[in-house]
Amino acid sequence: MKNIRLETIADMVQEGMVVADIGTDHALLPILLVQSGKTNKVYACDIAEGPLSSAKENIEKHSMSDSIFPILSDGFEHVPLDAQIVVIAGMGYLSAKGILERNMDRLSSFQQIIAEINRDPHEMRRWISENHFTITDESYVHERKHDYEIISFTTKQHIPYTDMQIELGPVLMEKQEEGYLQYCQFMQEKLDSIIQKSHGQAPNIEELIQRKNFYENYLQDIKKA
Q1: 190 touches 212 (CB < 8 A)
Q2: How many angstroms separate the CA atoms of 56 and 26, rounded?
Q3: Rg of the chain's alpha carbons, rounded to an integer?
């Protein structure tokens, strides 16, 4: 079965680089990267023996032991220094943030950092903005009733992003892809429904209204253009 989310992440990876996949699970992304010719060296990293064992089995099944190297590692702890790109995908924001913040002194050594977190991608962008990092690419994927936003960034210094860019994604806003525009319409309606049901009494009502207005204003600007 095709995995559009992983294929989109793989497409975003710069070609010819050594990649470290953090939280690799079954090593599906490393296998896809090697199969596609994006790279011939990937570190498949996981914090737990169980997933790493599954990864090893999958790597051997695909005869890729010369290209994909399973590593038991808490975040970047045991990731070799020749890794040029790091992918953190399929985990929560706080877990991803923790991995990044425990290794702040190493982030500048990566030519590309790709983050795909399960919920609240705007929190990931807020963290990137607060650290004055640069978002280089973004993709939106809807798959199996789930919405995913994949963010590629570097530690190159950048002025803080606006609140609207943090919510919607500066690159996604520029791309204006049909699937993403539908997602924005969904988010506007979802936030509006939450606001209406709370009768304006939600503890974070101002934030909810601001977020809803970002989507609404963005979609209105697209229609006017």
Answers
A1: no
A2: 8
A3: 19
Mind giving me the DSSP string for 62-100? TT-TTTEEEEE-STTTT--TT--EEEEEEE-HHHHHHHH
- Whole-prediction pTM: 0.95
Whole-number Å distance between alpha carbons of 71 and 69: 6
**Cα(213)–Cα(223) distance, rounded to whole angstroms?**
15
**DSSP per-residue letters across 115-167:** EEESS-HHHHHHHHHHTT-EEEEEEEEEETTEEEEEEEEESS--PPPPHHHHH
Q: How many CA atoms lie within 13 A of 127 on its CB side?
A: 20
Tokens of 55: 């990864």
Span 63-105, pLDDT tens digits: 999 999 999 999 999 999 999 999 999 999 999 999 999 999 9
Neighbours of 63 (CB within 10 A): 8
Report which secondary-structure segment, H or E, holds 5: helix 4-12
As a whole number, mean pLDDT of residues 35-51 equals 94
What are the structure tokens assigned to 154, written together? 């570097």
- CA 149 vs CA 18, 75, 104, 122, 136: distances in Å: 23, 21, 23, 9, 13
Angstrom distance (rounded) from CA 190 to CA 192: 5
Cβ within 8 Å of residue 83, ≥6 positions away: 18, 19, 20, 43, 110
H or E stretch including 22? strand 19-22
The residues, any chain, with a CB within 8 Å of residue 142's CB and separated by 6 or more, are 148, 179, 183
